[in-house]
Specification:
alpha/beta, 3-stranded antiparallel β-sheet, 42% helix
Length: 314
């Protein structure tokens, strides 16, 4: 047996040569990697900067660092600075129980999804995020950006929450990385919304937003050739306005989503007034019973009319 095999002792940790702890500059000075990481963070803190490690390498070389992309990737990976890093989630997801959604009033259930939009002038895809109310098909919020991150989804939910309120609302989405992120799930939990996920490879479970995307494809994407992101953004803003307030929807009875929303609001107001009147009549009957006038001939108006319902204002 060779001496090297007989006296071999396994080592702990990663195999191979240890990673360098310092980086050299053109003038010969040696910088600790912790300072290099601070320079990387400073680069990424610019307002509109979303660089990957190749662009960060170019920026560091402009600062006279002698560094290759592999080392920049390692430093960014170790400090969670990589663009598009895989989102790891914890906790169980609540999957949908029923494929068909049954709603009574607006803001009973909302659904959302992301669609690719090709910008011909820039030769690349942009991402369109839409949040749709299922009951009225009303577009609650919509954004078009180069990328959609979890913070963009949270901000969209915040806008909807501030305007309409999402407490008790069922939020249905697929298993995109932006939707399964822990921060998104935590925000919806804090807002007391009920998030549910469609099963893998079953777009039919989110049929309402998929149908909206087919409308967008037919009415906007297939008809317009965008020369710039700005032109596409203006076009989608106009389409959202037209869709909500002018476009008649077949499944709504040939009325617009805004008209459906207003009809539901009026109906809820009528139900609220009726409920208050019934409650007042019940209180009057209770008072008469307390005064000894209850002879079985004055039942509660609420019970006699069979008005037992639960609703909320949109």
């Amino acid at each position: 047996m060779a001496h090297s095999s007989f006296y071999y002792k396994p080592k702990q940790g990663r195999r191979g040569i240890s990673a360098s702890t310092h980086t050299q500059k053109i003038d010969g000075t040696v910088i600790n990697n912790k300072e290099v990481v601070k320079d990387i963070e400073a680069i990424l803190k610019n307002e509109f900067c979303c660089y990957g490690y190749h662009n960060v390498t170019a920026e560091l070389r402009d600062q006279e660092y002698v560094i290759n992309p592999k080392k920049v990737y390692r430093l960014m990976n170790e400090n969670n600075l990589l663009l598009g890093k895989v989102i790891r989630t914890s906790g169980k997801r609540q999957f949908v129980q029923h494929r068909k959604i049954t709603t009574i009033h607006p803001m009973d259930c909302i659904c959302l999804d992301i669609k690719y939009v090709w910008i011909d002038g820039e030769r690349r895809n942009y991402y369109l995020l839409t949040i749709l109310d299922v009951n009225t098909r009303f577009v609650l919020d919509q954004i078009l950006q180069r990328s959609i991150r979890k913070v963009d989804v949270i901000n969209a939910f915040k806008r909807v929450n501030n305007e309409h309120g999402i407490k008790g609302v069922v939020v249905r989405n697929d298993n995109g990385s932006q939707f399964i992120a822990n921060d998104v799930k935590q925000y919806l939990k804090t807002a007391e919304a009920k998030q549910e996920f469609t099963h893998i490879a079953t777009p039919e479970e989110n049929a309402y937003i998929e149908a909206f995307h087919s409308i967008v494809q037919r009415e906007v994407v297939d008809r317009f050739e965008f020369s710039s992101y700005y032109e596409a953004k203006i076009t989608f803003k106009k389409h959202k306005q037209w869709y909500n307030y002018s476009r008649k929807h077949a499944n709504l009875g040939r009325i617009t989503p805004a008209q459906k929303w207003n009809q539901s609001k009026i109906t809820n107001l009528a139900l609220l007034s009726e409920a208050k009147a019934s409650s007042a009549g019940e209180q009057l009957a209770r008072n008469n019973s307390t005064n000894g006038n209850d002879n079985g001939e004055n039942p509660s108006p609420l019970k006699s009319q069979g008005l037992s319902f639960l609703f909320k204002m949109p």
